[in-house]
Amino acid sequence: MRIEYGSKTSLPFGLFEDLSYYRNDVFVRLLGWDLDTPYGVELDQFDRPDTVYVVAKNDEGRINGCARLLPTTSPYLLGEVFPELLNGLCPPSSPDVWELSRFAAVDVSAEPTSARGQLSSPIAITLLRSSLQTAATLGAKSVITVSPIGIERLLRHAGFQAHRAGPPMVVGGHPIFACWIDIAPSLT
To answer: What span, in angstroms and rounded, lies between the C-alpha atoms of 19 and 177?
Structure first.
């Protein structure tokens, strides 16, 4: 597996476009999210010039994982769309905190295609570590994320220091929560 990261203008030529198709395959086609995805690409208002992407590729060079890092000093998903997950607290706004979103670790070219096992795959652990390392290079000491409740088990099992920012809620029929993940000094 190879990991690449950067903004949409600093990623290798064509990778950002491939990433937007991959995100559509995972989040819209496999997971069934109701998102506006014209032309089969998944992008939203948080895909800006200051957004940093972490992209995993398999041995054949196909994307098999992704993550998006957003500074909390600008608008971001949790703060703008899901602030109720913070149980009344103000969304963080600090150069020390980045948001991790659009995290996926599934090889959409593998058959049978299923996103269900993405959170327990070996790709997920490597991608999460790489995402935290990338966030650390950007000045983060922690990340915050909106995640399905099942991510807690992955984080505990893999030894990440994480805790809830508020109680879980059911949104769109799925239990989700806001989660703090500390960046270990060994990743900086």
So the answer is: 25
What are the φ/ψ torsions at residue 14 (nearest 5 degrees)? Answer: 85, -15
Give phi and psi for 147, each to the nearest 5: -140, 155
Residue pLDDT, tens place only, 145-182: 999 998 888 898 889 999 999 999 998 888 999 999 99
Helix (H) or strand (E) holding 56, with range, is strand 52-57
Q: CA separation (Å) from 168 to 28, 142, 159, 164? A: 23, 20, 21, 8
9 pLDDT higher than 50: yes
Torsion of CA 100, 41, 82, 187, to 10 degrees: 0
In the chain, the domains with their CATH numbers are 2-187 (3.40.630.30)
pTM value is 0.91
150 vs 26, 49, 64, 104, 176, CA distance in Å? 17, 31, 20, 13, 9
**In this structure, are residues 1 and 59 in contact, taking their beta carbons and an 8 Å threshold?**
yes
What is the bridge-based pairing of β-strands 97-104 and 142-148? parallel
Cα separation, 78 vs 65, whole angstroms:
21
DSSP state letter for 128: H
Is 118:66 a contact under the CB 8 Å cutoff? Answer: no
